[in-house]
Amino acid sequence: MKLQKILARLQKLHPKEIDLSLKRIQKLCKKLGNPQDNLNCISVVGTNGKYSTIQTIRAILNEANINYNIYTSPHIQKINERFVYNNNEMNDNELAELLAEVESVNNKDQITFFEILTAAFFYGAKKYSKNITIIESGLFHRFDATNILKKNLITLITSIGLDHLDWLPKNDQTIEKIIYEKTSSLLNSSIVVSKQSSNDILEKIKNSIKENKSKKIIFNSEFSYLVNENNFFYFEDKFGGIKLPYPNIEGKFQLDNIATAIAALRTLKLDINEEKIKKGITKIKTVGRLQEIKKGKLKNLAKRNKLLLDGSHNPLGAKVLVDYLDTLNCQKHLILGMMSNKDHENYIRYFNKKINSLTIVDIPNQKNSMKRNILKNKLKLDGIEIQSKPSIEEAINSLQLKNDEIILITGSLYLAGEVLNLN
Q1: Which tens digit of pLDDT belongs to each residue from 160-200?
Q2: Which domain holds residue 355?
Q3: Which residue from 43, 296, 281, 241 is spatially nearest to 147, judged by alpha carbons?
Q4: % of the chain with per-residue pLDDT over 70
Q5: What's the chain's Rg over C-alpha atoms?
Q6: What is the per-residue pLDDT for 15?
Q7: Which residues, other chains included, contact 267 with Cβ-Cβ below 8 Å and sequence gap of 6+?
Q8: pLDDT (0 to 100) of residue 126
Q9: Which one of 216, 245, 280 terminates a domain?
Q10: Out of 21, 221, 237, 394, which residue is the most buried by the measure of CB atoms under 10 Å away?
Q11: What is the pLDDT of residue 134?
């Protein structure tokens, strides 16, 4: 209860959820002694794949007994997920104490919720400054609260695509502008560029970072991987090749993120041998990203059918989801809920002729979500009559299921969190 009261107060410190500026967090971090200046950071920017890339790094660091701190956003079920120190999430009491101290130092100055959380993370990380600290950039990067580091160990650029367009002026809602926002202010250390959805986007990224003096490690130039049908894939960089087992997470697209994580860790020349990498990628823990729900209330409703949950919410995320669904020879049912500010039509068009049913649901407890009937009327799929149900349970129960079919709940990380809590 104490933690919830503090969070409620912090959310009232600024009238806007997002207000793109670095001045407020710089001011607060200065009061806190600029704790971010003494951290050994891995920075992760991009549109999709940041979370999976970070969780891959985490799994490998666990195997190598290397301590780490992690800051990610948004959280799926509990805000504690954003505050990982010395390999563990903070408990409610620890997090309440940290936030209360930072709240006191802030002294009611205007600051957004994300900004004060970010400052609090940096302040908490000071106690573990010798650890590797992994920082996920939030909205874009240039004016994101995480972009106040003066130095870092390395930057990872994951897949970039169209998202958060509502935060750009109408005439700037382009992939070029998003690439500029995400990559134009990267630090001069090393930059690893993941596999992109097209050569055009990759070339635009390379052009954006060409004046940056960092060492560039770019997919298909400095590192690559090959898929083998015999249950392994082959990673290669300038340090040599590694024959790797398939990871424990669904979707071959995850190999892009895993390869990026491996390339970054090998570039840093940490004390991580090949066996640690092999074991690590079979122990990756992801939540709400192509996650199979194997037990619980909703799984009971799904019966002998596979229940998958994915928080993808932009067209690029839809594309990789459909690539995964194409590998499955069965009936596929989509349950969809989305926030109001997303590109709904371009998201759903990737699923055209790829699924057998579509049911729209409300996202519980989210005032900025799109109401199911409004979303239903916006979407069209060839040969499918789109259904609308008031709850996730009713959506699952309404499906005409046999056995060994797929139910995929997707469209929002917020929906993913509600599904997990409900389950």
Answers
A1: 987 766 666 777 788 899 999 999 999 999 999 999 999 99
A2: 291-422
A3: 43
A4: 99
A5: 21
A6: 92
A7: 154, 190, 192, 215, 217
A8: 97
A9: 280
A10: 237
A11: 98
Give the chain's domain count: 2
State which of 231, 258, 280 marks the end of a domain: 280
Count CB neighbours of 133 within 10 A: 27
Give the residues of the chain that fall short of pLDDT 50.
none
Q: Quick one: pLDDT at residue 231? A: 83
Domain match, 275 and 314 both: no
Residue 27: CA count within 13 A, CB half-sphere: 12
CATH number of the domain bearing residue 118: 3.40.1190.10
| Within-domain flag for 285 | no
List pLDDT tens digits, range 365-389: 898 999 999 999 999 999 999 999 9
Which two structure tokens, joined as six digits, stand for 52? 């999976």
The strand order across the sheet containing 240-245 reads: 223-228, 232-237, 240-245
What token pair was written down for 219?
A: 């997919």
